[in-house]
Amino acid sequence: MERRTSEKLQKQNTKRLPYLRSPNNCAIHVGLPCHAHVYPELKNGDFQCDSNLTPPDLAMFSRLGITAELLNQARIERVTDREAREKYGIVGYGDMSGIVFPYMDPMTGHRWTGRVRRDNAEVEDGKAKRKYVSAYGDHRHFFFPPGCGELLADASVDLIFVEAEKSVLALTAWSIRTGRKILPVGLGGCWGWRGRIGRVESPNGERVDEVGPIADLRWANNGRKTYVLLDANASTNPKVRQARAALVRQLRKQGADVVVPELPLVEGVNGPDDFIGERGDEAMLQILEGAESGSAILNDVALFIRRFVILSSAQVTAVTLWCAHTYAYLIAIWTAYLAITSAEKRCAKSRLLETVGYLVSSPWATADITAAALFRGIEKKRPTLLLDEQDAAKKGDKEKFENLRAVLNAGAHYKGRVTRCVGKGSEQDVKDFTAFCPKAIAGIGWLADTVADRSIPIRMKRKLVSEKVERLHERTVEPIAAPLRKRLSDWIRQQLPALKDAEPDIPDELNDRQQDGAECLLASADAAGGDWPEKARKALIELYTGDAFRASIAANFIVG
User: Fold this and answer.
1) For a Cys-Cys bond, which of 5, 236, 237, 445 suits 560, CB 3.0-4.6 Å?
2) Cα–Cα–Cα angle for 229, 233, 238, nearest 5°?
3) Are 223 and 257 spatial neighbours (Cβ–Cβ below 8 Å)?
């Protein structure tokens, strides 16, 4: 009976229109029922709501920018303990009275279930426990804004996943005020995107629940731009960070173009709703606009490299990801080296080093260096080493080269150290110097085997007469490179929590050492999304197992 009544009211009272009018008469695409064609600006004392919400409730929503009209359409109401249990099926100990957020089918308006924000949640260790409760045994659903069916079905509309229902309402009102075409979706908690999806047989023969991504997650797929904006504690709470990383992996597996912005850790701000209430509309716009798609940034980095150097598709993919990795290597366990080699001179090895020097973090370019200068420089600078002319170093002082190679061998792992005596006379002491940093090493021939074993092979050859590249002049290149470098570093900085917890799938075709070096690059590729996860794996398989790699084995990795 309730369902038939709900559907009848839906037909009578709603008509989804693609465009509404904001208070300043600007057309905005929101897809809400047509009787809400004008959203009143919020003013003190001018906040009328048809539900039974109390004045303190309305004041709370008003502070977050949520209009009375939106509250009415979302059917937000206050329930007693008895109403919560009888109407919404809430069970459990304690008083269940509070504000209920009905979860409704975005296509029909039929109510699935509801979640209650309790007034009197139990307090343990100074924190509220079970503040939000929903009906026991309900199949999980997401919290959608009212009347959003057309927007949800339109893949050109960006999605933004948030944790709480208040955040969905606040972002919906924000999108109407600002004209930003985006559809917020509430997870109902950081792990709310997972639930019981069936029954399976356990190893001991028992039938148990199968847990996985719920059906509502299907809307984020096929290249649809999707923001994951969890609460501010995602950067400090390992459990929330783990949930976010798992959600991002699942969304990218479905083909979504995922962007992961971060809320700042400031007093009074937990979720996006608090942030809008405290900082305003423009600040939220900056959070989202500043969270540029990693795929777009890496595409631009790859285009920049191709302007000055002729590389294969696999090579430019690996070099691009290596440039991104230089901004995150301090949270990695292994760093991959680039082994830039050729059979003869004039194959653009030095040009490639120069080009990446405009893109990487703290570039340190040198061609002749001692082991002592190298590990002391790494300790002090935390650089990206761009080491050229290593064929000449091999042919020079053998002891000097072997000492240098020892530092290079140690520096691929974050625990790699070089130990030396420091001080004078009786005040001498033993000190460990880190050798860990990203390194690109160029030379004619093949690198020494232990160094090459830690490197991604980039085998260069002379460009054809028909192949054209631009000249590399600093006065013209730096103005172009500087903003690109900043975009890359800003994006990586936003991704650091996710990169730290990343566990990328690594191709079985790679051996153990190659997998160590590939992990950091694949983590960046997965964070970028788009086609980068797929082409990164194809590129590494090609570079590590292709003709250049086999040729290096045949030559026993002997330089020149």
Assistant:
1) 445
2) 105
3) yes
